[in-house]
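Q: What does the assembly look like in three dimensions?
Context provided by user:
Components: two
Sequences:
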Amino acid sequence: MTVRHRVVIVGGGFGGLTAAREFRRLPVGVTLIDKRNVHLFQPLLYQVATGGLSPGDIVSPLRWVLRKQRNTRVWLADVVSVDADQHELRLADGTSIAYDTLIVATGAGNHYFGHDDWEPHAPSLKTLEDAIEIRRRVLEAFERAEREEDPASRQAWLTFVVVGGGPTGVELAGALSELARDTLRHDFRSIDPREARIVLIEAQERVLPAFPAPLSTKCLKSLTRLGVTARITTFVTAIDTRGVDVAQDARSERIPARTVLWAAGVRGSSVGASLASATGAPLDKAGRVIVLPDLSVPNHPEIFVIGDLAHVSRDGALLPGVAPVAMQQGRYVADVVARRLRGRSIHPFRYRDRGQLATIGRAAAVADLGRLRFSGYPAWLLWLFVHLMFLVEFQNRVLVFIQWAWHYFTRNRGARIITEPHAWQTWRLPRDT
Amino acid sequence: MTVRHRVVIVGGGFGGLTAAREFRRLPVGVTLIDKRNVHLFQPLLYQVATGGLSPGDIVSPLRWVLRKQRNTRVWLADVVSVDADQHELRLADGTSIAYDTLIVATGAGNHYFGHDDWEPHAPSLKTLEDAIEIRRRVLEAFERAEREEDPASRQAWLTFVVVGGGPTGVELAGALSELARDTLRHDFRSIDPREARIVLIEAQERVLPAFPAPLSTKCLKSLTRLGVTARITTFVTAIDTRGVDVAQDARSERIPARTVLWAAGVRGSSVGASLASATGAPLDKAGRVIVLPDLSVPNHPEIFVIGDLAHVSRDGALLPGVAPVAMQQGRYVADVVARRLRGRSIHPFRYRDRGQLATIGRAAAVADLGRLRFSGYPAWLLWLFVHLMFLVEFQNRVLVFIQWAWHYFTRNRGARIITEPHAWQTWRLPRDT
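A: Here is the predicted structure of the complete assembly.
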């Protein structure tokens, strides 16, 4: 028997998991490495952050998804660096793993544009833990307001600032507004949660700047109807525990707010930087790896970068950091490997754009399907359908559907848990020793 | 208008929440104080700890449950002490709250019988955070075993010791076994999760010592069929990171195990001690408040203790720390307050015992309904039905039912998330300042 071609995939997100599944029937041995044991359905993370869904509803255990794929193993590990000459990855526990083909799909993290000190005051929404922390802050803010007697302090607890008017910011602002106006409506005695102020801050001239202008206008209308104050051409100049300083034109202003959420910038994950230093691959300003047309790294045809970490242009514009791009790239790369093994020719990657969707709230969304653009109820139904269909497991689909139906009719959100920081965190023992 | 009679209830568990709901139509003002914003359905906590359910499935936000009860407010606060002379509670934030009637329902915590240093090595299952931590340890143990090459170390990662053979210990051991034998069966490549060893340690002469002896025998059989090793008349003498020392008769033995769970002792919560020092109320050895036949504290007819924190005897035996006892006590105390307000006479509390149930695993349970005792599939169906019916919210019932049906047919468990300790824990800012 010959030794199988060893494919190592780093990252079990949309790109990495799609690639892993594509290798199912190929004569290769696949190792999927992730820091986490689950695939996270990131597009619904904002619903965990606002108490609509439970973390368990939007994850699928990687091992479970790949359990029947006998040529594939899942490795729970943290990649520290790439040794491109040795064709090896170094892991945090000191071990190494060798590859013949390496697919890096570690995605992107947050980018505070040089203001990393803002992060504790303005969490962003990338991981399950982020979502749980945001949920805690939001729910606790209402609790604090209920018991606060000073009107100004109370208003600061009831003010929620979302920085960034892209799809994530819009979804968060809309969901926060619904939480305050519908879900929590009858829950308090001293405050009226409907007095909560939700401010969405966008530096560009319109919300959803990546969408066609008419849809931005529709989105703005929906946001206003939901009671969200959208501030365009507005820049954040400072964030602290008590609020946000913003500047618009030449005027600057202080917004007292106890809860600030960051949905503005993303930056390629650290594995990208490590890959760049190992291979000389170029990075863009946001730390993404600029790849060749076949998604490989210059001079290293055996190393591919896909998903949010890859910088790929189409007609001069950067492909967006969304699931369909990552999934198509995962499928493409698996095909490239298969073709190489069979000695066939390779075509460059081409993204087939099926459009983009953003939801604002209950029965409000915008859809840009190229020639077809629409908003409101039909767009929202399409959004529901697409998101349910892409949820990996059938069980999750049913659970999420029931919870959405429940929210729709009762306006309740069941997963409103304030999780406490726990003594386990400090007791954590060195289990390796 | 006269000032309403002020009822303060501390604790939103089964006892406190039932009492709060009973006051719905009475001319009193109710404040329900809890450290947490949710009611926790504790009997299903072990399913969160073993990845079967999400935390959101077994909680109901207290505010939501009580939102329509206009005479009731919910206070998220931590009670520090009771001032029985002033009729006031002191809260952790420095404020106080006055009561005319006080109902203490703060439940019980863990009891390590003087070995509090065992707690980090052997977490017990009382809070949502405990369940999430246990889930993390259990799942991580399999991950570590998958990558461990030394056979002895691997076996230690695959050994799970549960201390305590009461209902919680039995449920945990059974669920761990199903996790290893069914759910994870195809998930790994280097290990066979079915080789996991689950050891249940009980000091008394049989498991489920509070049940009739024939049911203990049935339970033992079911456990054995599930591959659980039950060790009776066995005492734990030491617990550390690497395992457990046990003693049986005169022999002592070391069980190397990386995961040890504690389901042995409970102790009344700290509010009980504070109440005792404020009122001179007697405590039993486990820190429970020994109350009068009307559940009030000696010399303080306006202070009641209910639920797991109350020491109440019936025919010389202590009432068990289960939900039905707490709920009946909550209902009783609300009735006592109503009768007093109307000047009517009061009868002592009497527990109406409808029986007890314990589940061991898939299609295996034991039921003791007084004269009627049975086990196996019928007992398991009864267990399912009772637990679904008592879940507070309709939505939770549907969600839990679907997940149970899903587990039953696929043997999957969807909520298998290893939650990481998070930077937020260290960044936690003093939001009060």
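Follow-up: Chain B touches chain A through 72 residues (CB under 8 Å).
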